[in-house]
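Example for tutorial group B:
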């Protein structure tokens, strides 16, 4: 089966991403002892999309070795769960609990998830012709990209939530109770709110 090396490489990256998310879950919040609702959702989504990418990489192999002549079509049907579940989660967030979430990130994720659904639908219906593998590969890469983006957001929000907010009245100062923090020689980091 052509494309074995490409899908195997993507699967390896997705496995690494899922592993790093597990490490973040085990160690990253142990000191604080609590997870915010948005961070719990991000962690679950990172794992969902990483496992979805792994499944998308290995599913065509199994179908091909079972003797079916169109593994991309069958695999694309089986891979619908991940983007549909992700889109449903985005809908729930937008509808019920938008606090703590970035609207631009949510709409970006919704757009990517809809793109994955459309690509998989084109392949499943056989409308891709000779390009079935390329379309399937693009959907798989987008799934991995969503997982990577969510992992980045998980790290960004967990580290930035400990930082002081930027004082809008002064360009180089940070809101803090201690006067030492406004020292001109100190390095300032700001939350991205």
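The residue assignment follows.
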């Amino acid at each position: 089966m052509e494309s074995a090396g490409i899908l195997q490489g993507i699967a390896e990256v997705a496995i690494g991403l899922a592993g790093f998310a597990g490490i973040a879950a085990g160690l990253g919040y142990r000191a604080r002892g609590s997870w915010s609702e948005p961070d719990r959702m991000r962690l679950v989504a990172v794992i969902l999309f990483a496992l979805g990418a792994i499944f998308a990489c290995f599913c065509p192999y199994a179908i091909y070795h079972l003797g079916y002549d169109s593994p991309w079509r069958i695999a694309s049907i089986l891979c619908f769960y991940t983007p549909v579940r992700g889109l449903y989660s985005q809908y729930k967030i937008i509808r019920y609990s938008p606090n703590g979430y970035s609207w631009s990130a949510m709409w970006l994720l919704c757009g990517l998830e809809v793109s994955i659904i459309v690509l998989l639908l084109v392949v499943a219906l056989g409308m891709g012709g000779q390009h079935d593998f390329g379309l399937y590969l693009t959907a798989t890469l987008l799934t991995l990209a969503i997982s990577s983006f969510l992992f980045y957001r998980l790290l960004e929000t967990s580290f930035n939530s400990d930082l002081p907010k930027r004082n809008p009245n002064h360009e180089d100062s940070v809101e803090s109770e201690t006067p030492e923090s406004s020292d001109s020689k100190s390095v300032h980091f700001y939350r991205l709110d």
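The mean pLDDT is 77. Compare this with the pattern of hydrophobic and polar residues in the output above.
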